[in-house]
């Protein structure tokens, strides 16, 4: 039974529904709701500092259909300190690894209400994922508390068991990375090069602006997707950051099915946004790599203001690289506006399907790097 099967029609072969919660850890038939005589005796479980929790451990074929979760502590240290991993078909390395908050599209450890086709947080208190995650032999989902604070988890992993997957089935993958700060004129990598056949599903991105450059536009960077042997130049290239998420001339708060910007920091120096390639599939047959330029738009007068306050800071011109603006040329035409190179704090969670359960990517950054320099709210 797949997503296109009419909801009024039974599958052609037996498919079992299971909910994996702390009320039925193994998802066993007829074994739920036993604690406290069945009167909501175990809705949540403690997750101490340094501990781990297996959310689901499944043998046989099936499909993860939905995940829901909330935490006792939802502070930034929890959203960045908890790490989620997923393993398919007995693989030794995880197909999914990301800080919990970023995986569920919450930026810099701060929750915001939003709804998309694949993720949602109705009132900024929960984590929802609706990505179908098929597997042939087994599935294991683990939550690891790498922070120094105890926590607790309410969770529900909804799956169907006994699904018959054909040879074209793809495994779900997700990977988080951060560059704090990026380097001049080097594109931020959203998804490092991955080999195989599959589909890039999209990404959740977060940007914290360089503190010297928070008063002018940061989002001129174009998303570039390198497909099937692309090296110097990509096959796919967008027109700007806000354009990539379907808006224009800057970006404010919004959330739509396939694109949105649910988070803007109180000081308007950090943003969190997503794009999901569901109506516009991005297929690859050999390999894929995804990046975004770190560029912005600024008036000459604004650059002069920064240089007056921070004598050591220079602005790089967009182009071949290595060329910087001089004070003399800025003073000669203060009203002029140009696209320039920037250095900012970028985070990315990439989502994709792949024809194999392992992706060859290394471990994500450790706790210290994940928690550094987070916006206060």
For the termini, the CA-CA separation is 43 Å
CATH architecture of the largest domain: Sandwich
Name of the CATH class of the largest domain: Mainly Beta
Number of strands: 25
Would you tell me the overall average pLDDT? 96
Q: Which structural class matches the secondary elements?
A: mainly beta
Low-confidence stretches: none
Measured on Cα atoms, how large is the radius of gyration?
22 Å
Question: Considering the protein shown, what is the CATH homologous superfamily of the largest domain?
Answer: Protein of unknown function DUF2961
Strand content: 35-45%
Describe the global form.
globular
The figure for the number of domains is 2
Number of contiguous helices = 6
- What profile does the largest beta sheet have? 11 strands, mixed
Question: Helix fraction?
Answer: under 10%
């Amino acid at each position: 039974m797949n997503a296109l099967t009419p909801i009024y029609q039974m599958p052609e072969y037996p498919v079992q529904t299971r909910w994996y919660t702390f009320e039925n850890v193994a998802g066993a038939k007829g074994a739920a709701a036993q604690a406290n005589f069945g009167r909501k005796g175990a809705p949540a479980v403690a997750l101490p500092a340094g501990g781990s929790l297996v959310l689901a451990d499944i043998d046989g074929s099936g499909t993860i259909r939905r995940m829901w979760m909330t935490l006792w502590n939802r502070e930034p240290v929890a959203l960045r300190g908890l790490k989620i991993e997923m393993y398919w078909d007995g693989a030794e390395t995880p197909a999914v690894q990301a800080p919990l908050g970023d995986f569920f599209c919450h930026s810099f450890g701060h929750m915001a209400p939003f709804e998309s086709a694949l993720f949602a947080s109705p009132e900024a208190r929960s984590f929802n994922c609706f990505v179908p995650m098929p597997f042939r032999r087994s599935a294991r989902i683990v939550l690891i508390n790498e922070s120094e604070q105890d926590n607790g988890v309410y969770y529900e992993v909804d799956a169907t068991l006994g699904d018959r997957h054909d040879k074209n089935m793809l495994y779900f993958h997700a990977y988080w990375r951060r560059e704090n700060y990026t380097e001049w004129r080097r594109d931020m990598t959203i998804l490092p090069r991955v080999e195989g056949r599959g589909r890039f599903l999209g990404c959740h991105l977060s940007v914290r602006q360089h503190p010297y450059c928070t008063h002018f536009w940061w989002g001129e960077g174009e998303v570039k997707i390198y497909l099937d042997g692309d090296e110097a130049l990509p096959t796919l290239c967008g027109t700007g950051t806000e354009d990539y998420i379907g808006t224009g001339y800057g970006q404010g708060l919004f959330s739509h099915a396939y694109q949105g910007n649910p988070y803007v920091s109180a000081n308007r120096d950090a943003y969190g946004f997503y794009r999901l390639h569901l109506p516009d599939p991005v297929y690859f047959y050999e390999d894929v790599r995804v990046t975004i330029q770190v560029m912005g738009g600024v008036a000459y007068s604004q650059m002069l203001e920064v240089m007056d306050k921070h004598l050591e800071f220079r602005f790089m011109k967009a182009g071949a690289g290595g060329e910087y603006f001089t004070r003399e040329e800025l003073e000669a035409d203060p009203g002029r506006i140009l696209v320039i190179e920037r250095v900012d704090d970028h985070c990315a969670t990439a989502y994709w399907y792949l024809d194999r359960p392992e992706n060859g990517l290394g471990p994500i950054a450790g706790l210290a790097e994940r928690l550094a320099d987070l916006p206060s709210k």
